[in-house]
Amino acid sequence: MTLPDVTLGREPYELTTTALGYGAMSLAGAYGPISDEAAIALLHDVYDRGVTFLDTANIYGLGVSETILGTFLRGRRHEFMVATKAGIDPSGEAGKRRQNGKPEHLREQIELSLRRLGTDYVDLYYLHRPDPEVPIEESVGPLGELVEAGKVRSIGLSEVTAEEIRRAHQVHPVTAVQSEWSVFARDVERYVLPTVAELGIGFVAFSPVGRGILTDHFDAAGLAEGDTRRKFPWFSPENLTHNDAVAAQLRQAAAGLGIPAAGLALAWLYKKAARIGADLATIPGTRYTSHMDELLRGVDFELDVDAEAQLDSLADQVHGDRSFDPMWVSGGREGLLPR
């Protein structure tokens, strides 16, 4: 199929890519095992469906995701927009790592990422999280130097506040801001999204189907022991049954509209972004081609006003925060999530 394009950022650092991308954290086993062979086959299926925006990070499987993408990209690198990230220290246990926005760390990590990806540049390089011990200006400056060196085409920021966006944008134009946004997670609508719309910065929504809970396939009883979601309050034993029941309202609405739940969740995001005036790309991740097909249904689905209003009411019913540490995400630092 032919996917609509979206332009993130403004000249001379704008990037035009597919409005639906692929979040490659799933290739590193965050939500369950997947073999390298199955991962490569999945990427071919994603490509066959017209998706050319690939998003990864150095810490996804400590390089596993980037390495798999590097294998897949051989001979076709020019057909894709590739984004990766640095700014979280790879050492330590997942969920307990620290931010690292020091210039030397960012310079070191881009070299490692380029090697794993098998390329001499990335299209979009994010500061994965602001470092509370390093002013954001001191992290963004070196990212701009990587653009000048030709190793990076443009820079992005992940989970930053509106104030941090403005400060960073004065040092070097920011092409994209990436944060969690979904029917369940809406704090970015207060400050972050109006700011990127004002400044002409693109927005990239990760976890747009709530780490799977906003799909028809979610099994509350089936989360494996090593599943990353167990670290998040939405999925804690005291919250999960309730939140699954809230998500069931979306599933029921989707069934009534004749669209998969995941597709409806994406359609709601695109409708909201258009209302706000933000240029949106979504980067859901999955290990299954059939799930990608369900997501694709939402790209051009026309969401009516009644269905939009019904989904609008769900976030207030959710129990728990979207992050294991509210200060780890923009909404926590903006006082929108309880500490």
UniProtKB/TrEMBL annotation:
<dbReference type="InterPro" id="IPR020471">
    <property type="entry name" value="AKR"/>
</dbReference>
<dbReference type="InterPro" id="IPR023210">
    <property type="entry name" value="NADP_OxRdtase_dom"/>
</dbReference>
<dbReference type="Pfam" id="PF00248">
    <property type="entry name" value="Aldo_ket_red"/>
</dbReference>
<keyword id="KW-0560">Oxidoreductase</keyword>
<dbReference type="InterPro" id="IPR050791">
    <property type="entry name" value="Aldo-Keto_reductase"/>
</dbReference>
<protein>
    <submittedName>
        <fullName>Aldo/keto reductase</fullName>
    </submittedName>
</protein>
<feature type="domain" description="NADP-dependent oxidoreductase">
    <location>
        <begin position="20"/>
        <end position="315"/>
    </location>
</feature>
<dbReference type="InterPro" id="IPR036812">
    <property type="entry name" value="NAD(P)_OxRdtase_dom_sf"/>
</dbReference>
